[in-house]
Amino acid sequence: MAQQGNAPKSRNSSLPSVLLRSAVLIGVLSLALTYLDAPLWSRIAEGFGRSRDKYAVGSGSGICRQEVKLSPTNIKAERFVRDKVESPAYHAEIIKKLSGIIQIPSESYDELGPIGADDRWNVFYRIEEYIESNYPKVLEKATLEHANTHGLILTWRGSLPASEAKPLLMLAHQDVVPVLADTVQDWTHPPYQGHFDGEVIWGRGATDDKGYLISILESVDLLIKSGFTPKRTVILAFGCDEEISGENCGRPIADFLHHRYGDEGIYLIMDEGSMGIQREFNQSFAMVSVAEKGYLDVGINVTSTGGHASNPPDHNVIGIMSEIVMAIEENAFPGRVTTKNPMFGFLECAAVHAPQSSMPSTVRSKLGRVAGGDIHAQAQLAQDLDHMRYYFRTSQSVGKMSGGVKINAIPEIASTMVNLRLAVESSISLVEQHYENLVRPIAQKHGMVFEGFRSSYGSPERRKVSLYGVDALEPAPVSPLDSESWRVLSGTIRNTLRPLENDDELIVTPYLMPANTDTKFFWALTKNIYRFTPINLVDNLNRAHTTNEFIRAGEFVREPLFFATLILNADDAAAGV
Ligand SMILES: *[C@@H]1O[C@H](CO)[C@@H](O)[C@H](O)[C@H]1NC(C)=O
Ligand SMILES: *[C@@H]1O[C@H](CO)[C@@H](O)[C@H](O)[C@H]1NC(C)=O
Ligand SMILES: [Zn+2]
């Protein structure tokens, strides 16, 4: 948390004094107003508009308005699912199912060949068989189709056509991050044993993402068993390579569904989240990621003629590359909090719903100015929230560097790779421009040819600096908070999930996902893409890609209630069309 501090003096000035100051300014210096710095001008404007009151706790301003708890009209189906998730016999059953799927080591490796050519994909046949044998009712009511062999698509057809009620789509991935051989002994319980110690289920994939996969399957299974038949089609889709590129299953599944349902053909997409339910500012939040940062790997090559080390130039390719890396790190991307960033929505929610004393007044006092577009306040707020800096800026990390093969030879090439995660306000072309502006002068200074991102490379020139993009993904479009889909999701969260500790209320808030999910392939299918895991992820998250991954049984067994209620509520919304 940012340190709590007192508001700057000027923030406390009384309305009359602001009025007086404004009157003087307007009367005497009206022309000069244009040249005043933005903060002063907006402080004055605020004095008139009293806009800062909006960000007081319980201001009733409609900011971060919470939906009512949404109960399905199908009381019988809801009751059936609720009774199940409270029953110890059911707990034992669903825990066994999770434990069993953890025992299938469906690892995805960076260097996997294509499906069909690389035998290591075959483990995914076992996942499919496992689903088929554990969910016979689902397989009976829903149609199973395949996208590129291991992408699984289950369609539980509703009575209404997709043109009248767009399908609800829930995603999960079958693959897990590999367990490195020399870390196996660091696990308290073997990673692929699926050990349940009475409280926690241990193993690779417990949180990421097999708990989610089993929960959504369970939700459909329970609803089928309750006798419910949907009006709105429900689709479950399971990728096989979310942890690597997503090209083998993620993209084929998206293409398959896009071909069938078309642009904007889906009602709502649910996928794994990065935050789930957490406590911040002394308040429980259900953090729904409504956007993802972008992604870019930038490659830099410096090439020159080599030669004997006894006759070196003042700066060889390694020296010049070092200069470039220094320039990159010294010109890091500035932080800025804007209203486009869902994290601003989170701060608004915290301002009006968290205890007044738990949100630093330095933060609260800037929200109105940030909303008004004051760029000074936007930068200052990012500074105040430096402990969460990468939610508010593009990150850059120089991850690989190579150059030189022999101590007595002048190197001919130095190469570097930089990994960037793009702020929601940024874009691939803005980041590329920034890098070109930094690197071009260094190339010129050393009399080298400069090749930017849009160059046709391969210039015969031997002495050159080249920039090139490798993997690239724009920041995800921000999902709307005023759609029916969002209202149904929010109302479902509030109806089925509980706040942490002694909080009275669970506040649903938009959030930003710093990493990427398979949803990156689904942008055309709907604007309503929500990444959210309906459990307390506070500790689980840190273990997702490392040793001792786990999920708490008490939370896991309730996940199907959330997903089943979402299906029922989305079905009720279909009645109105
Ligand atoms: C950069 O150098 C690497 C080898 O270090 C090479 O594979 C790559 O093709 C080069 N790219 C450009 C654009 O020069
Ligand atoms: C949360 O509340 C406790 C007790 O009221 C207080 O001591 C603590 O500083 C608060 N935490 C935050 C982040 O404001
Ligand atoms: Zn995952």
Automatic annotation (TrEMBL):
Residues given in the record as Zn(2+) 2 binding sites: H173, D208, D271
Domain annotation Peptidase M20 dimerisation: ranges: 290-443
Pfam families: M20_dimer, Peptidase_M20
Positions contributing to Zn(2+) 1 binding: D208, E243, H545
Residues annotated as the enzyme's active site: D175, E242
InterPro entries assigned: ArgE/DapE_CS (IPR001261), Bact_exopeptidase_dim_dom (IPR036264), Pept_M20_carboxypep (IPR017141), Pept_M20A (IPR047177), Peptidase_M20 (IPR002933), Peptidase_M20_dimer (IPR011650)
Keywords per UniProt: Carboxypeptidase, Hydrolase, Membrane, Metal-binding, Protease, Transmembrane, Transmembrane helix, Zinc
Gene Ontology, cellular component aspect: fungal-type vacuole lumen
Membrane-crossing residue ranges in chain numbering: 18-36
GO biological process: proteolysis involved in protein catabolic process
MF terms (GO), sorted A to Z: metal ion binding; metallocarboxypeptidase activity
Similarity annotation: Belongs to the peptidase M20A family.
Name this protein carries in UniProt: Carboxypeptidase yscS
